[in-house]
Specification:
Elements (H helix, E strand, L loop, with lengths): L2 H10 L1 H8 L6 H24 L18 H30 L6 H29 L4 H27 L3 H22 L5
């Protein structure tokens, strides 16, 4: 199964996705998946917002980047932020598994989290695009809708952790929730809603 087939399998068959992912080069495929996610956000969310001259609804936390140029900066920053979140989340998962006395493999964890990020990220990019085109409500409602989409990342990550590393389902869900809780403040520091 090639990279694209594996990506699309993550939407329809989580068990088969996990079994196939275990045989793929790790963490290389996870790296390319999360990089693709960041580039998709850059090209399909932040580039259009920048070209349309939009200003983020929340001011920049980076004082050296003016609000009116922040979407332009996110074209470059988004892939880097997603890569940083991928490494932080994967490392945290690895450390928690090791401290709990369980088997862990950081390379496999990074492959799992990279593809989970791509799977939901592709849906989020399309969803955000629809909100931009249709003039969706506001950034808070958009953020809440992202949390519902993120449920699929929890599902496929938990299935993959179970099948590849024999992590109990309850712990897989907990690891995903902890990862999201850690990633959220970091993402809020840099990322901005497109509406």
């Amino acid at each position: 199964m090639n990279y694209v087939q594996l990506w699309f399998t993550s939407y329809v068959h989580p068990k088969r996705f996990a079994d196939e992912l275990e045989t793929k080069p790790a963490p290389q495929w996870g790296f390319f998946a999360v990089l693709q996610r960041g580039l998709m956000d850059s090209l399909f969310t932040y580039l259009p917002a920048y070209l349309l001259g939009w200003i983020p609804p929340t001011p920049s936390n980076l004082s050296f980047i003016p609000d009116e140029k922040y979407y332009g900066a996110l074209i470059l920053l988004a892939p880097l932020v997603f890569l940083a979140l991928w490494l932080i989340g994967g490392s945290l998962t690895h450390v928690i598994l090791r401290f709990s006395g369980r088997r862990s493999d950081i390379d496999q964890i990074l492959n799992i989290s990279g593809f989970a990020n791509l799977a939901v990220g592709a849906i989020i990019v399309v969803w955000d695009g629809l909100w931009m085109i249709l003039g969706g409500m506001d950034q808070n409602m958009l953020g809440i809708s992202h949390l519902f989409i993120d449920i699929w990342a929890i599902v496929i990550s938990t299935v993959a952790l179970r099948r590849i590393l024999d992590v109990p389902i309850w712990l897989g869900i907990l690891l995903n929730l902890i990862g999201m809780a850690i990633a959220m403040p970091f993402a809020i520091m840099f990322m901005r809603s497109p509406v």
